[in-house]
């Protein structure tokens, strides 16, 4: 049993990037699907595919690397709020990651979104992770 599925998701991505894998498979959940969609929209991953296998649904994620230097697009994945210590912020105290170059993924009452979208809608929530 996994006590923190989001931390497991981020760790699988981090390990795949460090091992220079092209594709990584992670167990699926609705929260992980939303985080994957945000990563794709912001250009951190190349592509993704949701597969509904019988025992456990899977998300296949194609990682993105620079064509010449082979540097990964995902350089830092950091879990902020954990099951033991939740971190909530208001709309006026939303974090900036690398002074706006990275993103923070926020779980709000309107769903999971990036910090920039939450700032635009003027809503706060739980800070799930920082990505740069």
Descriptive report:
By secondary structure, the chain is α+β, with helices and mostly antiparallel strands. It has three helices and eight strands, in the order H-E-H-E-E-E-E-E-E-H-E. The protein has helices at 5-18, 30-41, 115-121; strands at 23-27, 45-51, 58-63, 77-79, 88-89, 103-108, 111-114, 125-131. A hairpin with a 6-residue loop joins strand 2 (45-51) and strand 3 (58-63). The protein is globular, with a radius of gyration of 15 Å.
Poorly predicted ranges (pLDDT <50, ≥5 residues)?
none
| Tally of DSSP helical segments | 3
Shape: globular
Give Rg in angstroms: 15 Å
Taken in chain order, the helices and strands follow as HEHEEEEEEHE
Largest sheet: 5 strands, antiparallel
* Fraction of residues in β-strands: 25-35%
Secondary structure: number of strands: 8
**Mean model confidence by pLDDT:** 95
Query: Helical proportion?
Result: 25-40%
Structural class category:
alpha+beta
Our measurement of the CA-to-CA distance between the termini, rounded to an integer number of angstroms, reads: 29 Å
Give the helix/strand layout.
Elements: H1 5-18, E1 23-27, H2 30-41, E2 45-51, E3 58-63, E4 77-79, E5 88-89, E6 103-108, E7 111-114, H3 115-121, E8 125-131
Antiparallel strand pairs: 1-3, 2-3, 4-8, 5-8, 6-7, 6-8
Features:
single chain, alpha+beta, 132 residues, 3 helices, five-stranded antiparallel beta sheet, 25% helix
Task: Give a short overview.
With 132 residues, the chain is of the alpha+beta class. The chain has helices at 5-18, 30-41, 115-121, and strands spanning 23-27, 45-51, 58-63, 77-79, 88-89, 103-108, 111-114, 125-131. The chain contains 3 helices and 8 strands, in the order αβαββββββαβ.
């Amino acid at each position: 049993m996994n006590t923190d599925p989001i931390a497991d998701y981020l760790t699988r991505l981090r390990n795949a990037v460090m091992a220079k894998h092209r594709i990584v498979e992670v167990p699926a959940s609705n929260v992980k699907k939303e985080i994957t969609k945000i990563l794709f929209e912001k250009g951190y991953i190349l592509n993704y595919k949701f597969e509904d296998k019988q025992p456990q649904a899977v998300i296949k994620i194609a990682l993105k690397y620079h064509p010449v230097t082979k540097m990964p697009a995902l350089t830092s994945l950091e879990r902020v709020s954990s099951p033991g210590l939740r971190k909530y912020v208001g709309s006026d105290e939303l974090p900036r990651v690398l002074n706006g170059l990275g993103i923070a993924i926020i779980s709000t009452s309107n769903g999971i979104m990036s910090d920039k979208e939450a700032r635009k809608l003027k809503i706060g929530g739980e800070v799930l992770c920082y990505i740069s």
